[in-house]
Amino acid sequence: MNKIRKGDKVILNTGKDKGKQGVVLSVLKTGHVVVEGLNMVKKHTKPNPAKNIQGGIVGKEMPLNISNVALLNNLTQKADKVGIKKLDDGKKIRVFKSNNEAVDA
């Protein structure tokens, strides 16, 4: 079970965008995440009239290592560690380690 999933709100711990928040767009199998609006780079694209693409300089999000982001706790508005808790019916859920609140609730 992954501790960080697509759609989670995270905060960046290191790098040029340290302290900024964003939503996870995708989780890659290489242990990286793509976060909306973070780790932006400039990409130069050629025009392609067949696909109706205009050329120019485009901003693009690049992957970050999953260890450089932390899940954002909505109650405290701070980064928090995540643990896995097994319920009585055998179902596993993610919980914040600081206050044992369910992440997905």
Task: Note the main attributes of this structure.
105 residues; mainly beta; SH3 type barrels; six-stranded antiparallel beta sheet; two-stranded antiparallel ribbon
Structure write-up:
It is a single chain. The chain is mainly β and 105 residues long. It has a domain at 9-80: SH3 type barrels (Roll), CATH 2.30.30. Helix content is 0%, strand content 45%. The protein contains no helices and ten strands. It has strands spanning 9-12, 21-27, 32-35, 40-45, 56-61, 64-65, 69-73, 78-80, 82-86, 92-96. The strands form three sheets. A six-stranded antiparallel beta sheet has the order 6-3-2-1-7-8, with no helix packed on it. A two-stranded antiparallel sheet has the order 4-5. Strands 9-10 form a two-stranded antiparallel ribbon. It is elongated and about 60 Å long. The protein starts with 8 loop residues before the first strand and ends in a 9-residue tail after the last strand. The mean pLDDT is 92.
